[in-house]
Each structure stands twice: as structure tokens, then as C-alpha cells.
Amino acid sequence: MTRTAAAFLAVVAVLVPVTASAEDAAPQAWLAQLTPPPPAIAPDQPGAAVPAPAAAPPSMQFEPYVPPPVPAPAPALAPAPAPAPVPAPAAAPVPAPAPAPVVAPAPAPAAAPAPVTQPVPYQPVAAPAPAPGTFPAPQPGAVTAPPPAAAPGGPVAAPAAAPSKAAAAPAVATKELVAEQSTKVIVGSNGGFFGETGLFRVTSAEPVRPLGLRISAHGEFFYLPDFLYDGDTTQRQVGDVAVGLVPLDNFELFVLYQTMSTRNSKVVPPLQLSQGNITWGAKYAYPFVKHFSAGAFLGIGMNSEPGQSMYSIGATSVTLKALATFDGKPAGVPFPFRAHANAGAYLIASDQFGIADNDRYLHYMLNINEQKQGIFGLAIDFPLEKDDILPFVEVTFAYPDGPGCITPGVKWQPLDGHGLTVDLYAEFGLFRGTPALAPTTQVYNIIGGLSYGIQTTPQVKVVKERVVERVVEKVPGPTVPSRVEGFVKGLVVDVDNESPLGNAIVTMLGTGLTNLATDPVKGDFASPPLRPGQYNFVVEKNGYESGSVKIDVRANETTPAKVGLKRKIVEGEAAVKVVDAKGKPVPMAEVQALSGGRVVSLSKDDSGRYSGKLDAGAWYVVAKAAGKLAFGKVVEVKEAQTTEAQIALKDRPKTQLVIIEKDRIQLKKKIQFKTNSAQITGGESFAILDSVVDAINSNPRIRKVRIEGHTDDKGERETNVKLSKDRANSVRDYLLKAGIATDMLEANGFGPDRPIESNKTNRGREANRRVEFHVAE
């Protein structure tokens, strides 16, 4: 060893205390990993000179760590020769200075010398040298922990590379939904009937971005014999052009121009043209959530007169619709579909063109509907975005008496979403409508069309899934014990007829829990969580004897239970006197009491009354006798009391006034009313109503009767509807006074909306002014 090296080590020994603190140990241990160990010294040659190690490449050289409190001496001007053997500390071998210029003294080793006999070969780490006085950032995969201490005289083990935190954590593949922005026109955004976003007649509430333009053209063709008149042939072609514009977010404007050509072999002239029909409108839709949007539609139609190219103000129509669209894909449905719903009204000016009500050809040819109607539409489509194909089906109809159609169809974009859409629909009529009020619905119709759309701003439309890998460090959490409770799902019924009993009280004995009440309609109940074991459930309800059931509750299971209650015998007595129209007793009669499907016959007692024991409550008592009309009345039987009642029977008319059919009570003659009044007139009208009472009482299968009032079309429709309702209620009031139970009757009026004959003749109007009785149950 040279004298220069010995002097250098002596200075280091003086400056650095042997008793280094625990805080200094960490940087010394780190430094031990980055500096090469000293060469081995044979034990039989203490103090022998050791050759200096070869200089490392510049990228491999490291500067020793200098503790901040110790001032650094002047750097050496020449590379230091190999040091003399130095006692190694207990934790790590003593590093030797690198041959590079020395800028700071090396730290002194700790006490407790131990000769190193088998040093570990140095493995350099390719990294730039850190600035003096700082720790270099460890590189991925670098060794950051100090090597284990070697036993005295034993070999030093090479430090094992500790796995990094990122390498130990597994890579987990997760899915997330992403919205794709596109300026292309998505399939299904073209082709609505008016040029708006939609399918065909059903308008979509799909939101759209601004600066979108759509142009579409459609053609229809129809041919069928015996369509409007017997022995005729009807042929019709329709062409239209529509333009739609999106000036603002979710807001559309559109205009439709339409021409129609209709030929019928029975009409003179056989060919009729309708040109210049224009519809203006607007639509707004708003996306409330990512899978549901709603909006409104307004269309103003201006139709032209036959053979003219200008529209008539008398034929101006207004269409208002509320719109809704549900998109299944963002909602998590596994297959792509969208559902659309429309509901609104169709309003039109009256007396357009002066068309006769029975001129079905002009109504059909001009497509004019002279009636205010509610309009409805439902549709579902399946956007196959990969193939740019949109199959769908629509159902549209109007109420009352309007046309109805079912329309399957398909839209296809052959140019990979670049705006061009090919449309093909097949429309089938569900019912034909009323020719006197609305156009006759075509049996079928074939519609084809083309549309082209331009979208200049990106619109978020397609929602897709992508797989994302992310590193997740599993942190063991607290162990959650599995649930040990169970549940009871019960049902309470009448033991005699198995009908559910609502509002029954369920007590769970011994639990201290609040009592339960059964569902008012379903009669079921569900218990709170219960510990496993056997429980006694007691059930009570007014008018019934209490019942109980023992239930074994098992952990993590729902145990079904059924409790039957028996009705309490709470009786009273009914005593009914049966007389004729003059108040004289009827000697031989049949009297029955009806309640909730139960029928109890009453027997004649010594006083001539018909009596019997009945459960307390309301009973409908019916009396029948030969040559008499069957009449009845509601009798309220009270507990432990005798309730008396009297039923008067009228003589049966010599001619039969009513006939009982499957779904109605058919009248042989009409019930008469005062003109423009709901007052029943004429003795024969009351005889007819008495026969209706007899028909209801004589047929147990009749459980409910619907009374309908109808008028002709003279006067205002609203006035006629009110008059028809008032007349139906007058008839209902008479039947109630005759003893029919309230829950067996309902009444409604339809005014002129349901004629059975033409209103153009006196005979037809007379037939349309009527009251009908329909068997509802």
C-alpha cells in the first residue's frame, strides 16, 4: 500500500466517527450496493499490496455519499491507488474508492472488524451518477435493499432483487362504455314520413346535433279490386319530397310536398289528381338520461282541392304528438334495440271542400280525415350498426274510428354511413275506419324511398364497449360474515273459497317485532330477517276466526307459508214479503238471496213471508213467480236481527220485449225520450226497462251490464255526446230503483260516433238514436 493511500484512510478515520447513528446507516448501506467491494486479501499476507482495480466506464462510475454535516476536503488531483486492507463492518464490506477523481472522502467503516474472505463480484448498474449529497432514483428492477450481513469469516451472499410493487399486482381486464363521435349520418336518422328523424309514421325522440340536413323522397303504390265499391278496381300512386334541417341542438324543422294520383273504375272521371299538399312542422327532443329521451312534434298540413295546385284553408290540419324513445344498449340490454312511442291529437278545420259524408272515394283520394282524433304509434327497431341496417316494425292507429296499420320495414345505408339511405316498407291495414268520417284504410301498401343526409358537426351516437387493462393491488379487507337470517313469505286466504284476504294482521309471537298487515289486494306478507328456528305466526281479521301456523326458518332461505282463515258465523234473518202490482201477496214464488257468488234460497213461513238465516251484510234478494217479471232489491241483513223487506212483481207482458244474446240484451222496441232531453217517455218504454230488469234477475251468468247511449249527427258533437250520456244515466237510475245492485251497472254515452246506419236519411237517423245494453261480465 502506498503512503498516499494510507494517509487518505487515516483522514477518513478521524473525520467520520466510528459510532455512526442509525440515520447514517441507511445511506451507507445504499452506498455499499453501488460501490465495488475491495479485492480479496489472503489471510496469510496481512497488509499486502493489492492491485488497483481497472477503471469503470464513465457511465458506470459513482461518487461516494458525503454526509451533510461533515465538510468535504479538497479533492485529490490523481486517481487513488488500491487501498490497504481495511476491517469490514458487520453489515457490509468496506467500499474501495473508484479510480475516477475523488471529490469527497469515503465514509469510515463501522467497528467490529471482520476480514472478508470471499467477496461478491461487483455488478455495475447502468445509470448516470447522482449529484453529490443526493440519493439517485432507483431504476426499475434495481436493487434497493441492503445486502444481508455476512457471518465473520463466511461468504457474503449476493442481494436478491425484491419484486416491485407494480410487478406483484395483477393486471385486471375491465370493460367500460365509450361514446363514439361521428359526423356521418347514422342509419335510422333519415326517412320519417314528414322528413323528420324517425322510422316511417312513428317519429323518434332521438336527439340530434346542429347543422344537419336531410333530403328524402318516397313513392307508394296500391292496386286492389272490390276495395271502395263492389266490382271496382282502385289504383293509387303517391309521391313526396321532404327536407329536414337541424339548426340547433335537438331541434328540427321540416317541410313535405306531396302529390297523389288515384284511379277508380266506378267514378266519373275515373282519374283524380291531388297536387300541392304541403306539411310544415318542427320537432324537439331532449336526452334526459343516456338511454331515454322525450320531446314534442308539431305538423301543420295544407291540402289542395281536387285538380288544383293551391291548398284550401278549409283543409288545414294540425298534428300534435308527444314523443319518447328508449335505447336499450346504453341501458345495459345485451342486444341493440330502441323502442319509440307517440301519442297526440289530429285536428282539422270543418266543412273542407264540401265533401259529402258518404263520399268514401273523395275521402280516400284526398286522404282527408274530417274528424278530430287521438293518434297513437308504437315502434321497435334493431340498429345493426356494423352492417348499417335498421329493421323495424310500427303499429299506428287513431281513435275513434280512425285507420290503423302495422308496418314492417328496413332501412339500409349501402355506402358505409355516408348519408344515403334506402327505405322499403310494407304497410298492412288493421281495420278499415269509418268511410263517413275518415279515409278507408288500404288493405296493403308498398312504399319505397331514398334519403340523403349531411352531418357537419360531430354527434355522439354509437355507444361501444372496450376492454381496458389496469393494475389492481389487492388489499385484503375485513372478512364479512355470511348472513345467517332467514325470511318468511306468507299468504292469507279464505279457507272456503281460497280468495286472498287483505288487511289481515300477522303477529310473530316471541320476537318482539312489529305486527305485519297483508297486502289489501294480494293478501300476502313478507317477514323481516329472522334468526333460524321455529316461529309461531298468528293471523287475525275482522269477520274471521283467528288462525296460526308454525314455521321453521332456515338460514339464507325464504320459507313459504299459507294460512287459511274461516269466516265467523255472524248471522241475521231476512223476511221478504212478495206481492203483485196491487199489493196482494203472491201465493207461489221463488226467492233467492245472492252475495259474493253464494246463493241461498228463502223458505215460505207461516205468515206468508219468505225467510232464512243469512250472514250479516248486504244481499241481493230476487223474487220470481209464474206470469210475473223477476224483480229484486238489496237487503242489508243485520247481526242477530230480523230484516224485513217487500218485493212487488209486475205482470209479464204478452209480447216479448227483449231477447238475451251472448253479449247483449237485445231490445225489440226502442226506449223513447223527450226531444233533446234525457227524460224517459211512454208507458212502453218503462215496460221495456222492466223486461230488462227481469232479464238480469233471471240469468245468474249476467254479473254486470253496460248501458250505452247513442244519437244521430244533427247539432254539435259535444252536445250530442252529453245528451247520450244523460240518457244512459236516466236508464241506469230506473234500473237501480227497480232493485238492481249498483255494482252491476255502468253507463256511458258516445253521441254520433258509432252510427249503425247512414245519417243522411230520416230512417237512418232514427236508428242511430238508441240505447243499448251490453253484457260486460
**In order across it, which strands form the biggest sheet?**
2-3-4-5-6-7-8-9-10-11-12-13
What average pLDDT do the residues reach?
A: 75
Radius of gyration: 49 Å
The largest sheet is: 12 strands, antiparallel, barrel
What does this structure look like?
With about 775 residues, this protein is mainly beta. About 10% of the residues lie in helices and about 40% in strands. It contains seven helices and 35 strands. It has a twelve-stranded antiparallel beta barrel. A seven-stranded mixed β-sheet has the order 27-26-23-24-25-22-28. It is flat, with a radius of gyration of 49 Å.
Please give a quick description of this structure.
The chain is mostly beta strands and about 775 residues long. The chain is built from seven helices and 35 strands.
How are the elements arranged and paired?
Layout (H helix, E strand, L loop, with lengths): L2 H13 L6 H13 L130 H4 L2 E12 L29 E14 L7 E16 L2 E14 L6 E19 L2 E13 L6 E17 L10 E11 L11 H7 L6 E9 L7 E11 L4 E9 L7 E12 L12 E12 L3 E13 L15 E8 L10 E4 L7 E2 L6 E3 L6 E8 L6 E7 L4 E8 L5 E10 L9 E6 L2 E7 L5 E6 L1 E8 L6 E7 L4 E8 L8 E3 L3 E4 L4 E2 L6 E2 L1 H16 L6 E6 L6 H21 L7 E5 L12 H7 L1 E6 L2
Parallel strand pairs: 15-21, 22-28, 33-34
Antiparallel strand pairs: 1-14, 2-3, 2-13, 3-4, 4-5, 5-6, 6-7, 7-8, 8-9, 9-10, 10-11, 11-12, 12-13, 15-18, 16-17, 16-19, 19-20, 22-25, 23-24, 23-26, 24-25, 26-27, 29-30, 30-35, 31-32, 33-35
